Amino acid sequence: MSTSTIDAKDVAAIQATSVGVAVYDRSHWGRISVGDSDRLRFLHNQSTNDFQSLQPGQGCDTVMVTSTARTIDLVTAYVLDDAVLLLTSSNRREFLLQWLDRYIFFADKVQLTDITAQTATFSLIGPGSDAIIAHLGAGTIIGQPDGNHILVDKLRVAVGSGLASPGYTLIFPVGDKQQLWNQILALGAVELSDRTWEMLRILQGRPAPEAELTDDYNPLEVGLWQSISFNKGCYIGQETIARLNTYKGVKQHLWGIKLSAPAEVGTVITLGDEKIGKLTSYTPTTDGYFGLGYIRTKAGGVGLKVQVGETAAQIVEIPFVSHEYP
After folding, report:
1. Are strands 190-191 and 22-25 parallel, antiparallel or unpaired?
2. How many angstroms separate the CA atoms of 69 and 242, rounded?
3. Nearest 5°: CA angle at 49, between 115 and 72?
4. Per-residue pLDDT tens digits for 124-172
5. Alpha carbon distances (Å) from 255 to 70, 203, 249, 297
6. Which of 74, 99, 106, 245 has minimal Cβ neighbours within 10 Å of its Cβ?
7. Where are the alpha helices (DSSP H) in 223-285?
């Protein structure tokens, strides 16, 4: 994202997420339906959160990890009466379909269905979201925990915007997309572009595949504690995560990085002559330059002054992640 892409529309959309409401089209994200009678046990065994404690109408964020606990994707799951609906990153949908399918054994009653093309997803972001949700007939969901969801006609409304900002996620048949989009705009929402979502994602610290979520990092380093159950028993990658937690073995953490000038993703972060991390995401903002990066735990945290290449920078908190068990 170049500095020149921050225009008046971007500024208005960013402002709307703080004092009004913005709407973002996330239909390019993946949607996978996991059905049949073993679905909850299967997902319980394939990811970091506790699915067997969830009831229909509830949901959670969960991390798909490799056998060595390296991150694949941060997925939001919604438990329905007869299935679990997974909302995946757009660039991880096909990989996750193949990866999950590989772990379905002969006796498992699990059915994976890619429903991305048949459905659409919007995010409402900002304090003004409640009024729109009430207008859409889903007012009973207001004030419920993140991940809770209800179905109003064919519209599924879930608590949580996908970012740290308050809001809702809407999932519905693709044929209703244009009408619902127009209705939401008519109710006062401001359109959020792809580049503005990316700016917010980085400012708030939501990790993305191929940037913060890669084979180089585990969920504790990312700071996704709220997506991890430590008492659910075995799952793929569980031994590594449990060991890291028990022995305080997290060697690096994801932080926000306030930059004094533009910087390139991949740039080494240094403290004096010592290499202490790497920049994983970068964006210009309405008020300077900002990035995400992993910093060695022993080097320090908030307030630490570092160099990103030749650029002076300071470590700051990001609201989407945390660095200790909540």
Report:
1. parallel
2. 10
3. 60
4. 999 999 999 999 999 999 999 999 999 999 999 999 999 999 999 999 9
5. 18, 10, 17, 11
6. 106
7. 238-246
Residue 38: which residues within 8 A CB-CB, separation 6 or more? 108, 109, 110
- The DSSP code for 165 is S
- The DSSP H or E segment spanning 9 is helix 8-19
Q: How far is CA 199 from CA 24, 193, 270, 289, in A?
A: 13, 10, 24, 10
CA distance 162 to 22: 13
pLDDT range class, residue 3, cuts 50, 70, 90: very low
Largest CA distance in the chain: 61
DSSP assigned state of 129: H
At 267, which amino acid appears?
T
What's the average model confidence in pLDDT over 105-116? 96
Decide if 63 contacts 92 (C-beta within 8 A). no
CA atoms within 13 A of residue 12's CA, in its CB half-sphere: 10
pTM here?
0.96
Amino acid at 95: F
**Token pair in block for residue 3:** 């500095």
Q: Is 69 left (phi over 0), alpha (psi -120 to 50) or beta?
A: left
Q: What does each C-alpha distance from 250 to 30, 199, 270, 281 come to in angstroms? A: 30, 27, 19, 21
